[in-house]
Each structure stands twice: as structure tokens, then as C-alpha cells.
Amino acid sequence: MTKISIIIPTLNEANHIGRLLEHILSNSSADQIQEIIVVDGGSSDDTLEIVSTYDSVRVISSEKGRAKQLNKGAQIAKGDILYFLHADSLPPKGFDSSILEAISNEAKAGCFRLKFDSQHWWLQLAGWFTQFNWKLCRGGDQSLFITKALFIEIGGYDESYVIYEDNILIEQLFKRNTHVVIKKPILSSARRYEYHGIWKLQYHYWCIHLKHRFGASPHDLLSYYQRHVAC
Fold it and tell me: How far is CA 3 from CA 33, 106, 133, in A?
């Protein structure tokens, strides 16, 4: 039977990881989930203590950096499907069945549409657009499922990108015409928008997209992010 390995990168996610793990266990079927793997990049808060209370969750350590953490989780995953999930996002009820249904319909990779936990009109509109299978509307907050075979074929996440790693992998999926969008919403935290201000952060995200499009290096993107976005 095809099963899903859920891979969650963490770095000081004590405020979110417990809620996510409870949500996963309550909204999926145990016989469809191969394992839940938390890949920690060196948390200094209570993240690891919280995860350790879940016997069904495997936690491993990694160098800091989401691409490195996700690749390390994928390397040890036993499932046929890899599901990469941010610690502050809550997938829809029955997400595992939705993923397996998409795979049975010959999809090899995809995501859920996005909904922010904010009533701000711009974030609501931005989430609405994610129902369309356009590369411009994609991002890691929407989560990503992919067959392990395709992930290996692509070469996994490009670890030269400390940020923007999700978009780089998604570009590879669109080149292969293998990406689908499940129309059920995943609920994602708007915490970074609330911290920086919605318009300020959106402007910087657009700048990062444009810089990449016009040939900026991974180092250039990281430098810009550290100056304007990093908390």
C-alpha cells in the first residue's frame, strides 16, 4: 500500500509544533501515514521537548537550513510519498486521503490551496489566487507532496539556497508539468506579515521573486532577505 512520510523542518517552533502534531494525528488515517519525521535545525526553545512527548513521531537533528533539513528527512523516509509541511501550517482534514487520491489520478507532485489565519483583505485575496495552478502563486506555505522517485530524480532541494528553496524545487516540477493543486485549503500563519507589516513584507517578497527571475545568485537572495525580512 502506498503510504506518506510527513517531513517537518523546525527551528524554535515551540509555539506551533505541538498544535501541528495534534492536528495531523486527529485529521489523518494511521494506515495511510508511514511516519512523521521532525527535522530540527538546532532549536534552543522547547521544540524538542514537545516533540519528544509524541511516541509516534521521529525526531532527527540536522544542520540549520530548511533545504538541508528537508533533504535529510527525505533520505531516511520510508514512504512512497514525501509530504513537506511547515510547522506553522495546518493541512485540511483528510489531507492524506486527498494526496493519495491525487497520486492515484497520476499526479506526481502538488500542494493545497492556501488560506491565511488573517482576515486582512489582501491576504484573503492572495490565498484565493492559490487555487489556480500557476507557478507565480506557489510557495512553501502551501506544503508540497511529491513521489519519492520524482524527488530523487530532481535531486531534492538545492542546498545552495538558504531561502527560496521551495520555489526552486517547484520550478523543476513545472518544467516537468507534474504539479497539481488540491482545492482544499491549508491554513497558514500570517505571523511574519503581522510582524513586518503586510505591504512591507509583500514588497520584499516580490523583490526576491524579481531578483531571482533576473539572475540573482542564492547568496544575493539570502543577503537581501537578511537585510529586509529576517526576524
Answer: 5, 15, 25
Rounded to whole angstroms, how far apart are CA atoms 142 and 86?
Answer: 9
Q: 225 is written with which cell numbers?
A: 532577505
C-alpha cell read off for 8: 517537518
CB atoms within 10 A of CB 30: 8
Helix (H, G, I), strand (E, B) or coil at 65: coil
Inter-residue contact 74 to 156 (CB < 8 Å): yes
Q: What is the SS3 assignment for 37? A: strand
Closest CA to 85 of 5, 161, 181: 5
pTM: 0.97
Q: Which DSSP string do the residues of 128-147 spell out, in sequence order?
A: HHTTS--GGG--GGG-EEEE
**pLDDT for 48-95, tens place per residue?**
999 999 999 999 999 999 999 999 999 999 999 999 999 999 999 999
Phi, psi of 91 (to 5 degrees): -70, 160
| Domains in the chain, CATH or no CATH each | 4-189 (3.90.550.10), 193-231 (no CATH)
Tally of CA atoms within 13 A in the half-sphere of 90 that contains its CB? 18
| Cα gap 119→125, rounded to integer Å | 10
| Rounded Cα gap, residues 98 and 149, in angstroms | 19
Compute the Cα dihedral for 119, 15, 157, 91 and give only its sign. Answer: negative
